[in-house]
Design brief:
Shape: flat
Mean pLDDT: 85
CATH topology of the largest domain: Rossmann fold
Oligomer: single chain
Strand content: 15-25%
CATH superfamily of the largest domain: P-loop containing nucleotide triphosphate hydrolases
Bound molecules: adenosine-5'-triphosphate, magnesium ion
Number of domains: 5
Helix content: 40-55%
Low-confidence stretches: 651-688
Number of helices: 27
Radius of gyration: 29 Å
Length: about 750
């Protein structure tokens, strides 16, 4: 097939996009809102540089935010050019830095076969250093030291660059950093942050090499520039230089900067012109992705942020359907609603791939996953693990398994030193050896070893402590309910504190997931007959859920992901779940204006993922992080102009006093229910009906459930009950034989 002509590359672009794609500028900034075609411009500009400016693919370096986006970009350019792009470099910052270090390991002073340390490996090494330094791990949590190392590397700082100003705490962290780095250098290991730092140093220390790449890369293009951190920025600056030979195009949206907590700096966009030299700025204002309703909602929300570069987004597209807001009675009802609407959409001919469920916190996914499983809807957790496959959950389950069976070696291995209790690899290897020798489980082998006093005192005490902990937890939790058992295990083993003390965002998420496990137990318990052996059954349930493989990457499936991982993507139908104060915006951001603005940008990112239809859902009462709380709808719902919203109502609802004519989402719980428009078919339930919403009931056949609604009165009233085991049923009151609990 013939390659496309340069002109035809400009077809299907609007004039601002065309100006950007075909610009002669060596410094180009495309600053534009969501869905305005930034990524599209980047793709077309690369094709243009190759076709019209006769750059070879190997003259181009393109940086994207994920590996998936890189693959997609390559594919799209090949489509446009109708030719393979073999030698073009396109990838993430980390991927590209890695490639450089592999090619130039000698100049980078690395062994040829250097190893990449992933985050878990890194943590293990940091722990080892802390132990070698004989520091107390409770005072010097390894996670915190790891975060210290990584954030400094992200800022471009080696240990010797850091001034502690005599602060003893900082000094110790610095020693850990130093020793950690020595260990990495000796062992030929490179962590993620090191990839960039070291390749930045490679530029600085090897001018000939830098010159070579400056010659080679005639143009560098960066997508999602608003989320670059300091070292990435510095890396680009050195590479591009200022002799004008290497051009650079960056595209970004300050309103979509959502990685401030990981060192991203929106300022990088503002500073670009000062640092890189005279820059042509193109703004794109036409949005091609979303209906005008969705776009106006997004504009309405983001307008509440103060510190913005300011853009105006418009569309000539359809007005589209109003945004549906659903107030779930609780998180289970919320998830049920989402599953139900997904089924309707599938019946209307949408594919599962067309649909995404976005949430603020990973811990929300469990209830949503269960609703998908119950409704037999194939789903995928994008960029993450399913709930029961997460490491922290597996750790907690391993403790529970040991309570059941001391001989469960896999569980034993998993937690004998998690959280760390001072058992080194050597001691653990010794336990394994004895177990092999005597052909007994690790638990028995440990008893033998202790009996024969084979370990050094410190390790022996640690092992003793572990065995005693399991015995003690077993004693304490006999006869208590499953949820309580889980709760005591999570606290008693120190797992929760361990994760809470991790200073990075992931630690917080892990602690949240652990608390969510208590909820999972409580729900599971409620779904069983009273006298069944619930721990064993629960462990089976967890194992089965974890074993159930995710839908394959290419299988048509509903996409579930955090709002953060949705960056850059688009879906015809989007559900944003848990849009509540305290969850989104998160509790921690409520008193911090900077964090609140970042949460709002995240809301903007979420809303603008939707092309045709957006649902915002929240739960009036939510069990999350181990407790049940009443939440008000998020301020982000209130910030959307009211005429764009439509509240979805269940057929029958709790009676609630109606306040005067406040026509906005006031955020107070009573304000949400305002009769701002009429809700077809909504019938209020008599306050004295025995079938009050939320009441627990038991049915002889369906088991325990919760009343979700009631229509009509007297013996012919229809009661809707959500049963834990069999889902929702509609029952006629006089035949229902419901026992009120
Ligand atoms: P985000 O900020 O979310 O990353 P973006 O600015 O990168 O968004 P794109 O993903 O490039 O936007 O484009 C959004 C959608 O609009 C895509 O489906 C794209 O194909 C479409 N689009 C962009 N420009 C045009 C155009 N001129 N004609 C038709 N469709 C367009
Ligand atoms: Mg994009």
């Amino acid at each position: 097939m013939r390659a496309m002509s340069a002109d035809s590359i400009l077809n299907h672009l609007n004039s601002a996009q065309r100006q950007a794609v075909a610009s002669d500028a060596q410094r180009l900034l495309v600053l534009a809102g969501a869905g305005s075609g930034k990524t599209r411009v980047l793709v077309h500009r690369i094709a243009w540089l190759i076709q019209a400016r006769q750059l070879a693919p190997h003259n181009i370096l393109a940086v994207t935010f994920t590996n998936k986006a890189a693959a997609e970009m390559r594919h799209r350019i090949e489509d446009l050019l109708r030719a393979p792009l073999g030698a073009m470099w396109v990838g993430t910052f980390h991927g590209i830095a890695h490639r450089l270090l592999r090619l130039h390991w000698q100049e980078a002073k690395l062994p040829q076969n250097f190893q990449i340390l992933d985050s878990d490996d890194q943590l293990r090494l940091v722990k080892r250093i802390i132990r070698t330094l004989e520091l107390d791990e409770t005072r010097w949590p390894p996670k915190q030291a790891q975060a210290f190392i990584n954030s400094n590397k992200d800022e471009g700082l080696r240990a010797e660059h850091i001034d502690t100003f005599g602060d003893p705490h900082q000094k110790t962290l610095l020693t850990i950093y130093q020793q950690y780095q020595d260990a990495c250098d000796t062992g030929g290991m490179v962590d993620f942050a090191e990839l960039l730092l070291r390749s930045h140093e490679l530029w600085l220390k090897q001018p000939a090499l830098l010159q070579h790449y400056r010659q080679r890369f005639r143009h560098v293009l960066v997508d999602e520039f608003q989320d670059t951190n300091r070292i990435q920025y510095a890396w680009l600056r050195v590479l591009v230089g200022n002799d004008g030979h290497t051009g650079i195009t960056i595209v970004g949206d300050d309103d979509q900067s959502i990685y401030g907590w990981r060192g991203a700096r929106i300022e990088n966009i503002r500073q670009f012109g000062d640092d890189f030299g005279r820059t042509e700025v193109v703004k794109l204002e036409q949005n091609y992705r979303s209906t005008s309703v969705i776009l106006n909602a997004a504009n309405g929300v983001i307008a509440h942020n103060r510190d913005r570069l300011g853009k105006n987004l418009w569309t000539t597209g359809d007005e589209g359907e109003p945004i549906s807001v659903y107030a779930g009675f609780n998180e289970v009802d919320e998830a049920r609603f989402i599953a139900e609407r997904i089924q309707q959409a599938l019946q209307q001919g949408f594919r599962r791939d067309d649909i995404a469920i976005l949430y603020r916190s990973n811990a929300q996914s469990r209830v949503l996953e269960e609703a998908m499983l119950r409704a037999s809807i194939a789903y995928r957790i994008y960029g993450g693990h399913r709930f029961f496959e997460r490491a922290e959950i597996k750790n907690a389950l391993a403790y529970l398994r040991l309570l059941q069976h001391r001989d469960d070696d896999a569980a034993f291995e998993r937690v004998v030193n998690t959280p760390t209790r001072g058992l080194g690899d050597k001691s653990i290897e010794r336990i394994r050896a004895v177990a092999r020798e005597l052909k007994v489980p690790l638990w028995q082998a440990s008893l033998q070893i202790l009996h024969h006093k084979e370990l050094a005192t410190k390790a022996a005490n640690a092992l003793k402590g572990f065995l005693a902990l399991i015995e003690q937890l077993d004693q304490e939790t006999r006869g208590v309910g499953l949820a309580e058992q889980a709760e005591r295990v999570i606290h008693g083993t120190g797992l929760l504190t361990f994760h809470q003390n991790e200073k990075d965002d992931r630690g917080e998420a892990r602690a949240e997931n652990l608390k969510e496990l208590i909820n999972a137990c409580a729900e599971f318990e409620a779904s069983l007959d009273q006298d069944s052996p619930s721990l064993a059954a629960f462990l089976d349930h967890a194992a089965l859920e974890a074993g159930e493989t995710q839908a394959d990457a290419d299988e048509d499936s509903v996409q579930m992901m955090t709002l953060h991982s949705a960056k850059g993507l688009e879906f015809p139908i989007v559900f944003m779940a848990g849009v509540e104060e305290g969850l989104f915006p998160s509790m921690q951001s409520v008193d911090d204006p900077g964090r609140m603005e970042e949460e709002r940008r995240l809301a903007y990112v979420g809303i603008t993922r939707a092309m045709k239809k957006l649902y915002l859902t929240y739960a009036e009462s939510r069990r999350i992080y181990g407790t049940e709380a009443l939440h008000a709808p998020s301020r982000f719902i209130r910030e959307i102009p009211l005429h764009l919203l439509q509240e979805v109502r269940a057929a029958a609802r709790i009676t609630r006093p109606m306040s005067s004519s406040d026509n906005s989402y006031s955020g107070g719980r009573s304000g949400v229910r305002e009769p701002v428009r009429s809700y077809g078919g909504a019938r209020m339930q008599a306050a004295d009906s025995p079938y009050q919403l939320g009441r627990s009931v038991r049915h002889p056949k369906f088991g325990d459930g919760v009343i979700m609604g009631c229509e009509g009165q007297g013996p012919n009233a229809q009661v809707r009950v959500n049963f834990a085991g069999v889902g929702e049923k509609r029952l006629v009151a006089q035949y229902a034989r419901l026992e009120m609990l």
